[in-house]
Design goal:
The chain is of the alpha/beta class and 323 residues long. It is built from 11 helices and 8 strands. The N terminus and C terminus are likely disordered.
Amino acid sequence: MRTQTKSSLNGVFAALITPIGEDGRVDFETFDQVANFVLDRKVNGIVLGGGTAEYPHFTVEERAALIRRAVALTAGRGQVLASIGASSIYPTLRLANEAVAAGADALLITMPYFFRYAQEDLAAFTAEVCASVPVPCLLYNLPGFTNPIEVQTAIDLLSSIPNLVGMKDSSGNVAAFGPLAAAAAQNGFRLFVGEDSVILPALRAGWDGIISGIASFAPEIITAIYHSHQEGDQARAEALQSSLAEVIARIVQLPIPWAVRTLLAARGIGNGPLHIPLSKHRQDQIGQMLSWFEDWKKAQPFTEVSLTGNHKTLSYSAKRKAS
């Protein structure tokens, strides 16, 4: 198992989509293409099993197999963070142990989804997971889809649990950036912004890096924002953030994973059908987004994908196989 320290967790991580076949099961061959696509474009690592990955659709066994594959594929090219979100502690711990055995660099502890819990419940949940594994863990605040972590709860946990080394925050709560950065400076934990619309404000507040779903199809612009900020070129960083805002305005019109998967397909990596049928309105929205994307990407420093073999398209197929 690879070792990991707090200080080495920084930079840009691409939160990967999960490709599927016509039967809805994971397409592992295409997953390799997705991972190679972002790693070739110099992200610092990849994240598996987060919101962009549509993790509730997949079994613990499928997710564990993806982690094993990712660790083998990335060797020497980047870090692997495994998100272990589930609705209860039991599948969370099973997946955590699978990720540790596979050699993931760190775990992202997503809060339980569906039922609402108090902050003390989330604290107990986090403590149990951290105590069960011998690897670094990060909180994953995804309030749009799971139980939200309040700022003080996060600070208390990050300041008291030895192997809880950081946090990914996808809330977009700019008011939390300063308090979290101040606590991180005092206690030594790492902070990653997970809401692409506020990357630059987070970095300017002293946050350490980015975990981005948009980096799954456009890693170049996310890494460019990060490096422009690190190099002190704030004018370029602001221009890039403004360009990114155009992308966000388009993709939020759809469920985010649909948009990310569609635009990754537009860059040359088809990744299977969507999990829910598309209405006529949704088909029209996707068509408009693709038309816009063709013009937008011409202005970007993109290297297009050249693939051989079976090119998989993304669409809803009425000929689904029974799972």
